[in-house]
Specification:
- The complex is a heterodimer of chains A (104) and B (476).
- Chain A has one domain (16-98): 3-Layer(aba) Sandwich (Glutaredoxin), CATH 3.40.30.
- Chain A is an alpha+beta fold.
- In chain A, 30% of the residues lie in helices and 26% in strands.
- The relative contact order of chain A is 0.27.
- The longest helix of chain A is centred in the middle third of the chain and has 17 residues, at 27-43.
- In chain B, strand 4 and strand 5 form a beta hairpin.
- Chain B has 13 helices and 19 strands.
- A 6-stranded antiparallel sheet of chain B has the order 8-7-12-11-10-9, with helices on both faces. Chain B has a 5-stranded antiparallel sheet with strand order 2-1-6-5-4. In chain B, strands 14-16-17-19-18 form a 5-stranded mixed sheet.
- The chains are: A alpha+beta (104), B alpha+beta (476).
- The interface between A and B is medium-sized, with 34 and 27 residues.
Chain lengths: 104, 476
């Protein structure tokens, strides 16, 4: 995880585009949404765009993205594409898995 | 040279061992019922075992080389929702371990389908929540005990009734948590408690006792106990009880009212009866045939009313525990003769055959003469009422310690349901209006009178064939 806080170069704001696949309102889906919103609102306010896709309502989208299980969180932009699957309660693991920088 | 050969041989052995190990590993992965996915360190799928097709309901070939994702695990495993093509989603338990795959670092991901287990857990939690809601809103107290008589569940109502509002009942044994008294304030022994009866006889029992609160005060209860049976074995007991203090008070007031009213009514009825008898004897002059008929009918009405009021008075005394008996030695034959003569007219009118045995008439019992005659009157009255043809046979015998009177009729008989409720004061026999029928409480009074004298009344019956009432009174 790269921290930009002490970087002397001029800072360029990054807009992250994320996709979160969930399954209806299962406890795992609700926990994932809650955890992710917390992480994003704490450190990425205004610099992220999150699309939440319910695989029950949009199975075709899930098939196209080759989703096997949820919660699956995909970083679309900026490249490279990264994907994590499973528990989103550990902020450090989430940021590491998606290679997100901490802005602040 | 020898060194080189040994090295080559060792290498061969090591290679063989490695191949065997890999073969075993492949075998485990191939035959595992859980989905096994091998990804590179970036999450790209290198391998999926055959079981994965069943778990995800998709062909594994279409996923090789695609992204699975980096698995994030909390502690040892994590739960995920399984996306199944064309089927309901499931629930999986995902575990990850670092491994090597084709000589490169890899992730080995195991996903076990736990959908059925989760469903069962949810149903269990739902059932538990429903049970707690039901227990919480129950007005009656509920106590559940295990087979060692320890309290395992108790609802709020039970805690409040027993004065354990702050808890503390769970885990306590029956003996430590509450004592049970009878209506005379005597502690009821353990083997006579309703739970013992239920555990031995496997019956549901309703009883009338007093429970002692935590602070030592007591309150009357109506109790129902029921065994918990698992696999044919008693695994515990459930007791439902309620405080019947108010009911008892209402009952007491009712009995006192009945007693008061009955006393007040008895006198004018007796006076009216007296006047009518005088007129029939000619005290006020000669009567026409028609007038005589009317007065006889009026006398019968008075007699019925007097009997009814007497019965109500008797019930009131029985329920208040105020029934007194005057026990004296008396011949059983004498009681029978005095009772039977009240029915000779009715028996003749119905053209029934009456037979009273002469054997053992001199058996002497210890009894209250008036109450025993009244009890026998009620039984013979019942036999006469419900016998339309045939006979009524009364037999006396002296069995060990008891004088016994059997009243056998060839009447309508009674069903099991009627027999089970026969001696309760709410029961009214038959189903059609019969002239002379009282309030249906005669048999209840008869049994109470005889039981007060340390005797008992029982009955056997066959529908459409007849009934036999059996009196047992202790010998003098």
């Amino acid at each position: 995880m790269r921290n930009m806080k002490n970087n002397k170069n001029k800072y360029m704001p990054i807009k992250y585009v994320l996709k979160l696949y969930v399954t209806g309102a299962t406890p795992r889906s609700q926990a994932a949404l809650k955890n992710l919103k917390k992480i994003l609102d704490e450190d990425y306010k205004g610099v992220y765009s999150l699309k939440v896709i319910d695989v029950i309502k949009h199975p075709k989208l899930a098939e196209d993205d080759k989703i096997l299980a949820t919660p699956t969180l995909i970083r679309i932009l900026p490249p490279p594409v990264a994907r994590i699957i499973g528990d989103l309660s550990n902020k450090e693991k989430v940021l590491l898995g998606l290679d997100l920088v901490v802005i602040g | 040279m020898k060194k080189l050969t040994n090295k080559a041989n060792q290498h061969k052995i090591d290679l063989q061992a490695l191949e065997e190990s890999e073969a075993r590993f492949r075998g485990i992965v191939l035959w595992s019922p859980d989905a096994i996915i091998v990804t590179d360190t970036k999450g790209k799928i290198e391998y999926m075992n055959p079981a994965a097709e069943g778990v995800f309901n998709r062909k594994v070939e279409s996923f090789i080389g695609k992204d699975f994702g980096l698995p994030l695990i909390d502690d040892e495993s994590t739960e995920i929702d399984i996306f199944r093509s064309g089927k309901e989603p499931g629930v999986g338990d995902m575990r990850v371990m670092e491994t090597e795959w084709l000589h490169k670092k890899a992730h080995l991901i195991m996903i076990r389908d736990i959908t059925e287990r989760k469903k069962a857990e949810e149903e269990l939690n739902e059932a538990k929540a429903k049970d707690e809601a039901i227990l919480g809103c129950m007005v009656d107290g509920m106590i559940e005990m295990d087979q060692d008589w320890r309290i395992v569940t108790v609802n709020k109502a039970a805690e409040n009734f027993l004065g354990w509002e702050d808890g503390g009942l769970i885990g306590k044994s029956w003996q430590d948590a509450l004592l049970v008294q009878d209506d005379k304030g005597r502690i009821i022994a353990l083997d006579r408690l309703p739970i013992q009866t239920v555990l031995v006889a496997r019956e549901i029992e309703a009883t009338d006792r007093y429970f002692i609160r935590k602070n030592g005060t007591r309150f009357p209860v109506a109790v129902t106990a029921s065994p918990v049976i698992l696999g044919g074995v008693i695994a515990g007991l459930i007791i439902i009880f309620r405080d019947i203090t108010k009911e008892k008070e209402i009952n007491r007031m009712k009995n006192e009212f009945i007693s008061l009213v009955s006393h007040q009514l008895k006198t004018p009825i007796a006076e009216m009866k007296g006047y009518i008898e005088n007129m029939l004897e000619g005290v006020t002059g000669d009567l026409t045939i028609r007038q005589r008929q009317y007065f006889n009918e009026m006398l019968e009405v008075c007699a019925r009313a007097y009997r009814l009021i007497s019965d109500l008075l008797s019930i009131s005394m029985i329920e208040r525990g105020a029934l007194l008996v005057n026990m004296l030695p008396i011949k059983l034959g004498e009681i029978v003769d005095l009772s039977v003569k009240n029915f000779l007219g009715t028996i003749k009118k119905k053209d029934l055959v009456l037979s009273v045995s002469e054997k053992d008439k001199d058996v002497i019992v210890l009894a209250d003469k008036d109450k025993t005659i009244e009890a026998l009157n009620n039984v013979i009255d019942n036999a006469v009422k419900f016998t339309d043809k045939g006979s009524i046979v009364i037999e006396i015998s002296g069995k060990t310690g008891y004088g016994v009177v059997e009243v056998k009729d060839t009447g309508r008989g009674m069903s099991r349901e009627v027999l089970n409720n026969l001696f309760k004061k709410e029961t009214v026999l038959g189903g059609e209006p019969i002239a002379g029928k009282g309030a249906g409480i005669g048999l209840y009074i008869a049994k109470s009178f005889i039981q007060q004298q340390k005797g008992d009344i029982s009955v056997t019956s066959i529908l459409d064939k007849g009934s036999t009432f059996i009196f047992k009174i202790p010998k003098a």
